[in-house]
């Protein structure tokens, strides 16, 4: 019982933190998506993976699409950034968000 309550609290706090991060970095995310000409669906998938840590299967369930479609979107995004690595995509995205957020604080 006690562990269940602790897990539920942890889940709530994790979701709150992710929602906070998503709101604080929304503009940077939009600029990143625009810079690489990502579609709205590609942007949505990137956020679900990068911010919420969802697996391809979880993304598919969330977006009501097949897991193969998720993989196709990821492949399209990686092609747009000229990389074959999901890690490179995530690194590029995270660095962009950090730099954009830092620039906004200093102006």
UniProtKB/TrEMBL annotation:
Asked if the record carries the keyword RNA-binding, the reply is no
Q: Which InterPro entries match?
A: Sig_transdc_resp-reg_C-effctor (IPR016032), Tscrpt_reg_LuxR_C (IPR000792), WH-like_DNA-bd_sf (IPR036388)
HTH luxR-type domain location: 31-97
GO function terms (MF aspect): DNA binding
Q: Does the keyword Transmembrane helix apply?
A: no
> Which UniProt keywords are listed?
DNA-binding, Transcription, Transcription regulation
Q: Tell me which PROSITE patterns the record gives.
A: HTH_LUXR_1, HTH_LUXR_2
BP GO terms, sorted: regulation of DNA-templated transcription
Q: What is this protein called?
A: HTH luxR-type domain-containing protein
Q: What is the lineage of its organism?
A: Bacteria, Bacillati, Bacillota, Bacilli, Bacillales
């Amino acid at each position: 019982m006690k562990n269940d309550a602790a897990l539920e609290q942890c889940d709530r706090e994790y979701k709150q933190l992710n929602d906070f991060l998503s709101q604080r970095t929304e503009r940077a995310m939009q600029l990143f998506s625009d810079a690489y000409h990502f579609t709205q669906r590609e942007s949505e998938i990137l956020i679900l993976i990068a911010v919420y840590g969802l697996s391809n299967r979880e993304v598919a369930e969330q977006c009501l699409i097949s897991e193969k479609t998720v993989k196709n979107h990821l492949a399209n995004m990686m092609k747009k950034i000229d990389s074959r690595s999901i890690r490179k995509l995530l690194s590029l995205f995270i660095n962009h968000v950090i730099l954009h957020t830092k620039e906004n604080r200093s102006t």
